[in-house]
Amino acid sequence: ARTVNLAVIPGDGIGPEVVAEGLKVLTAAAPEHDIAFETTEYALGARRWHETGETLPDSVEEELRGHDAILLGAVGDPSVPSGVLERGLLLRLRFAFSHYANLRPVRLYPGVGTPLAGVRPEDMDILVVREGTEGPYAGMGGVLRKGTPDEIATQDSVNTRLGVERVVRYAFAKAAQRPRRKLTLVHKDNVLTYAGELWQRVVREVGAEFPEVSVDYSHVDAAAMFFVSQPQRFDVVVTDNLFGDIITDLGAAVAGGIGMAASGNINPENDFPSMFEPVHGSAPDIAGQGRADPTATVLSTVIMLDHLGLDAAARKVEQAVSEDLRVRAGLAADERSTAAIGDDIAKRVAGQG
Ligand code: NAD
Ligand code: IPM
Ligand code: MN
């Protein structure tokens, strides 16, 4: 059997609810594919912070480093100042483990409702490759004259040649493997001229290594419009950390909802474990009610299985989700609990659907 050492960070709010279903489905897939998931759970998030003041102790980061992959629910809680857990845990892991390629597919599965009239599944099959370690997320900047009328807050966007080049090359390689072989750079080079020019130049230079991939460019404001009006324009999208964050919530909304949007924080070199998590957050407004959709987390485990080279298991779980989504079209919204959806997907994976 192939053993996968999986670190699990359920986190806050609906995080533990959806992670439980992701693990349920993985457990159902394991026997047929001869995989043994060895899971270690890490209690991090709001409760840990209230009890100990810790977000991510160094010793835990070291332990995480030794795993094959990390499955994360979500972090963030109204009782904790905004940013403490998001920066102290989530971003710290993305940075420490060089998760520079944040994969966020925007796919409309057959049977799933979209608010876009006339859009078919074949019109919406986008892979957003969001840069994961730089941009305005880097934490550069500061505050001057705080609390005075002359206060100045700056938040710098960091764009390194190395950081831009590695994610752009990764996105080109992804585009080269897809039927349409198209890469769209999404930026704002008409205003963010320093960073935009670097991204454009790197896309030109790296693009020379991929003559089979056609290159397009869209300003991020126009891209937001086209995600809604003409999603078929896009195949692979490469973009900076913040733009990628925003357009993938938009992508989730047009592709059936935030409860279905999956992501993988990938370190392509496998120097560190990659981390898989739904695009959504801890959803404090519905936490503890069994109403969260676990599909995004299950689809994130599909990205994980693919990353680990467990293709057959990945296809099996994806197929089970896709069948579940087709059946769902006939059900009332909220008809099934979080656990019931997980049960139904797990049964299909185990061949008892
Ligand atoms: P959110 O994604 O948690 O929620 C936005 C809306 O979507 C809410 O109405 C919520 O109920 C709904 N929603 C989210 N996931 C759902 C699911 N699986 N099924 C059904 N409905 C779902 O975003 P927010 O409200 O902006 O943020 C809440 C907290 O989560 C904040 O602390 C934020 O910093 C944090 N956050 C964490 C992550 C992460 O850990 N990766 C991602 C985003 C936000
Ligand atoms: C996401 C989240 C995070 C981000 C926050 C919670 C730091 O919104 O994973 O999309 O902005 O990357
Ligand atoms: Mn986000």
UniProtKB/TrEMBL annotation:
Query: Record's PROSITE patterns?
Result: IDH_IMDH
Q: Which UniProt keywords apply?
A: Manganese, Metal-binding, NAD, Oxidoreductase
Required cofactor(s): Mg(2+); Mn(2+)
Q: Per UniProt, what is one Pfam family of this protein?
A: Iso_dh
Domain spans labelled Isopropylmalate dehydrogenase-like: 5-345
| GO molecular function list | 3-isopropylmalate dehydrogenase activity
The first-level EC class reads: oxidoreductase
- The answer, when asked if Membrane is one of the entry's keywords, is no
The enzyme's E.C. designation: 1.1.1.85
InterPro entries with a match to the protein in the record? ICDH/IPMDH (IPR050501), IsoCit/isopropylmalate_DH_CS (IPR019818), IsoPropMal-DH-like_dom (IPR024084)
Protein name (record): 3-isopropylmalate dehydrogenase
**Organism for this UniProt entry:** Streptomonospora algeriensis
